[in-house]
Design goal:
Blueprint: H1 18-32, H2 35-38, H3 48-52, E1 57-65, E2 71-72, E3 75-76, H4 77-90, E4 95-106, H5 111-128, E5 131-140, E6 148-158, E7 174-177, H6 183-191, H7 209-218, E8 224-227, H8 232-244, E9 247-251, H9 259-268, E10 281-285, H10 290-298, E11 307-313, E12 320-323, E13 329-331
Parallel strand pairs: 4-5, 9-12
Antiparallel strand pairs: 1-6, 2-3, 4-6, 7-10, 7-11, 8-10, 9-11, 12-13
Helix pairs in contact: 1-5, 4-5, 7-10
Length: 344
Amino acid sequence: MSKFKGKTITLAHGSGGKAMRDLIDEIFVGGFDSPELALLEDQARFDLTALCEHGDRLAMTTDSYVVDPLFFPGGDIGKLAVTGTVNDLAVGGAKPLYLSCGMILEEGFSIDELMRIVASMKATADAAGVRIVTGDTKVVHRGAADKLFINTAGVGVIPQTVNIVANRAMPGDAVIINGYVGDHGAAIVDARGELALESTIETDCQPLNGLIAAMLDTCQDIHCMRDATRGGVATVLNEFASSSDVAIRIEQGKIPVRDEVRGICEILGLDPLYLANEGKLLAVVPADAADAVLQTMQAHPAGQEAAIIGEVQAQPAGRVILATGFGGDRVLDMLVGEQLPRIC
């Protein structure tokens, strides 16, 4: 930190001058350790021949992260930013390769905390097998932001044999989830100190591209897949049902929910099916491949608690039906409003 005279971000770090160059060199270029980023060009450049070795279509996504607090049990805003973008690519069947990173820093933000976040992003990117190859830094006046906001964009390549889209759910298909729901939303509530909990709930934040690659090795014809982030499981299922013009029926008793998460939901009047996740996916697969895909998922660290939770039916089209533990059925609508603000 010899190039920094203070311990916090100042407006000079966003001015385009020497202070900004020192910040970029020491914190970002050094922290991310990417050969493309080290060139300090205004763009990252890729060999098209190498990209085409992975498939015939590019996938691109972007997301912004404003989670409060920045650090929470099991993760932080940096881990979240990399994971979220990697997973958005992977659930479309793409192999994630490259990420960008844009940071909006508030004047006065701790440089030590920034270094922790950059290190977390680097570790998560390494675990997912992706590289952060370009970025941008802005500094705003004190009070104009809340410490730190991050935007990440990602590029991946989709193999020729893969066609995962929301409108391919067919009657008879099985619906599979890779584990416990609601952990991330509950972890953020815990981190905010809004409840005096005896045990700490950790976020489920994790890259899913390794799990998805294993699933595709088992079944190339996965019909639909999405990660259940904001809006939770219920919202994703409604998106599938609406796009495919089918009904999806799930069984409440088969959906994995931790007792601690269920308890938080009961106290706050929330539904775990609408809570955010950052390491959970929903997959719609042909019935004859469901058991094989499930076994593959359960053999992977990110899918040990995977379960088949329902099936696709023809009617009532566009609806998600929840078979409750009391023996009845109810319609599971999309989330209306926001249960918990700034959870990602």
